[in-house]
Amino acid sequence: MRIDTTSGDFDFTYLSLGAGVQSSALLVLACTDDRVPKPDVAIFADTGDEPAWVYEYLEVLKTYAESHGIEVIVAQKGRLSEWVVDRQRSGERFISVPLFTKNSDGSTGMLMRQCTQEFKIQPIIKAVRKHMGYKPRQRVKERVRCMMGISLDEVERLKPSPLKWCTNSFPLVDLGITREDCYKIIEDVGLPKPERSACVYCPYHSDSYWKWLQDNHPDEFGKAVEFDNDIRDMTARGRNSPGYVHRSLTPLSEVIFGGDPDQVDMFGSECEGMCGV
Question: By CB neighbour count within 10 A (0-12 exposed, 13-18 middle, 19+ buried), where does 275 fall?
Fold first, then answer.
């Protein structure tokens, strides 16, 4: 799964942009380093529930990328929280996120995760096809490369594309670039340091992140608390056990963060279609 840095092997290249540190550094390298292919477009999949700072930083990245001839487009299916909460209340088809719940044997389990596929991966694929001029269900004939911002210290997240016409590539891994290196790459071109990019209420957040969010961004933490309260009733999902954002099966507003065991951080610093893997 190593990248072939020669641009002639592919007809179309896009960069999967999460607006966190790794994919932002990859975008910078695509603009400044000849070893990294310059994508035809960079695509950000918007769940509608990212923290405010992600949208602010995305505008910074747009300005930077476009000054180097790279278009940044936003792909969006809708607002994820509405598909999770409102649609299940109304009886419509809804999206499942990996909430924590109690199994019948008393152990802690997680619900099925549909959010990544339906609100990250599929919108990007749809945007790629549209950008290339394809209609829905029309067969893609070109060879497409997807550049993903996964660093050397997260090699366990590398996965091939499920699409026959698309090849995932990982330039940061091939260049031996770590997450810490990414910060320097971004700072060296005068861009501000990005914060974490992921849905504000994502169950994969660690306790240290929740504590940081609570202390530094109480408004965003409040959004997560509101979502956590809204999804408590799971009966519409065919489950008798309530769902929670936090693994302790405690309302987020009542959790004392930093307890033992600490909630595991199940993805790196950003969500860009492969969160939680």
Answer: buried
- Determine, yes or no, domain membership for 119: yes
Does a structural domain hold residue 28?
yes
- Is the pLDDT reported for residue 277 higher than 50? no
Planar angle of CA 63, 65, 199, nearest 5 degrees:
80
**Which residue from 124, 183, 187 is spatially nearest to 153, judged by alpha carbons?**
183
Rg of the chain taking only CA atoms, in angstroms: 19
Q: Where are the alpha helices (DSSP H) in the chain?
A: 21-32, 52-67, 80-81, 87-90, 115-116, 122-131, 171-174, 179-188, 207-216, 218-230
Give the residue numbers spanning the domain of 88: 7-195
SS (H, E, C) 119-175: HHHHHHHHHHHHHCCCCCCCCCCCCEEEEECCCHHHHHHCCCCCCCCEEEECHHHHC
Q: In the structure encoding, which two tokens stand for residue 9, read together?
A: 């092997």
**Residue 34's CATH number:** 3.40.50.620
**In the chain, what is the straight-line distance between the N-terminal and C-terminal CA atoms, in Å?**
16
Per-residue pLDDT, 232: 83
Distance of CA 234 to the CA centre of its chain: 25
DSSP H or E stretch at residue 7? none
For 92-137, the pLDDT digits (tens) are: 677 888 999 988 888 999 988 989 999 999 999 999 999 999 998 8
Number of domains in the chain: 1
> Does residue 181 sit within a domain?
yes
Per-residue pLDDT band for 274 (boundaries 50, 70, 90) equals: low
Residue 134 lies in a domain: yes
